[in-house]
Amino acid sequence: GLVPGLLNLGNTCFMNSLLQGLSSCPSFIKWLEEFTAQYKTEQNQSTEHQYLSLTLLHLLRALSCQEVTEDDVLDASCLLEVLRIYRWQISSFEEQDAHELFHVLTSSLEDERDRQPRVTHLFDVHSLEQPEITQKQISCRTRGSLPPMSNRWKSQHPFHGRLTSNMVCKHCEHQSPVRYDNFDSLSLSIPAAMWGRPMTLDHCLHHFISSESVKDVVCDNCTKIQAEGTLNGQSIENQRTTFVKQLKLGKLPQCLCIHLQRLSWSNQGTPLKRHEHVQFNEFLIMDIYKYHITIHKSSQNDLNQKNSEETKPGTKDGIAVKPPDAEQTCGTKSLLMNGACSTSFLMPSGTFPLTAFPEYSSPVYLYRLMAVVVHHGDMHSGHFVTYRRSPPSSKNPLSVSSQWLWISDDTVRKASLQEVLSSSAYLLFYERVHSRVQHQSLELRAEE
């Protein structure tokens, strides 16, 4: 039930801990397998070591026991070598950060994806100048037929998500167009702790999406209203008002990486590390942080007329009830949901206490914890270790193991779920769990 360890090449615990965490995410390994499928058809196999995706896939498969290896300790120096080919100069003898390396890997994979597919040359001038070469030989020298152009968004890695930024004028309530930004991990700051209340992951998530006021912003709608009320010929200055800005999650990824920012600064400007424990659960519900497109009033009135004949769930006296916003839902119930470590909520591994939260009996965005990266030490020196799940058995490769492992470079031992949840997490790796209803809907879409 154990996995291979990784050799410390000199302060490479940052890389070893991240690789162990990534190897516990089956969706990421599956994506790498599909991503690297085209390399198997290429004639030149000697250049495989130059691809980051192939190097990463071989390491993760070995760490997840999908490839047979006789070594109990593996050497991951090949990853640093291929990153140098990608022009990343990462010294193994200096203090590095696991979260920064995660960004390096995802951005390098995106660069490699942007170079795909390798479009075949339609004309080979050198071959055409030689009349004795047949058409078949020309086809071989031009690497065969033209490969299909894949959709760019279909090849996005499983950690890819999108944030929404919503701006609303406080004066005229005009909403600016929603802005979308990509992310590969959610970097959450730890808010100031309240006396007598434990810090939970929901506190950090709610603080991340909490609205903020942005002053002195030009409002085109207020300027337009002001111009309509003035006489012709008068110059109108741009109206500056205060906007309310709020972040939400427009697209949630299949694999969710959460980074807890433990770096803070003293009044003297020196870096400090925050050691407080942030409570998190084995399961994570992200429904309340998801951005939903607002329904126009006309569409809402049509919906009210359809529901006026009878009262249905989600309605009151025939009028559609607006779902609670994240600020309201995050008040009491949700803050106990994601991060509650009360003994009444400690369940056997692999189960989720949905009965404790009837309003979330069927969450759409439910995630299961797969790995936790922990940093011991201060801001100047320390050590990274990883808690991760043991690979599933060969009899049931699609199952999720309930056995946890503690890994420090080449040292591997078993751990309990309680030990994992009691750790001071730095990186959290979650993977989305699809319910039976969602699986059925996906199958219906596939049939259609």
Q: On the 0-100 scale, what is the average pLDDT?
A: 77
Helical percentage:
25-40%
**Number of DSSP strand runs:** 20
Sequence stretches where pLDDT stays below 50 over 5 or more residues: 118-122, 132-136, 138-142, 146-153, 296-300, 302-336, 341-359
Rg over CA atoms, rounded to whole Å, is 26 Å
The outline comes out as: globular
Quaternary structure: single chain
Put simply, the count of helices is: 14
Q: Decide which structural class fits the backbone.
A: alpha+beta
The description of the largest β-sheet is: 8 strands, mixed
Which percent range describes the beta-strand content? 15-25%
Distance between the termini: 41 Å
Domain USP: 4-433
Family: Belongs to the peptidase C19 family.
EC number: 3.4.19.12
Catalytic activity: Thiol-dependent hydrolysis of ester, thioester, amide, peptide and isopeptide bonds formed by the C-terminal Gly of ubiquitin (a 76-residue protein attached to proteins as an intracellular targeting signal)
Task: Describe the protein in words.
Its EC number is 3.4.19.12. This is Ubiquitin carboxyl-terminal hydrolase. InterPro entries: Papain-like_cys_pep_sf, Peptidase_C19, Peptidase_C19_UCH, USP, USP_CS. The chain has 448 residues and is α+β, with helices and mostly antiparallel strands. The chain has a domain at 158-254. It has 14 helices and 20 strands. Strands 5, 9, 13, 16, 17, 18, 19 and 20 form an eight-stranded mixed β-sheet that branches.
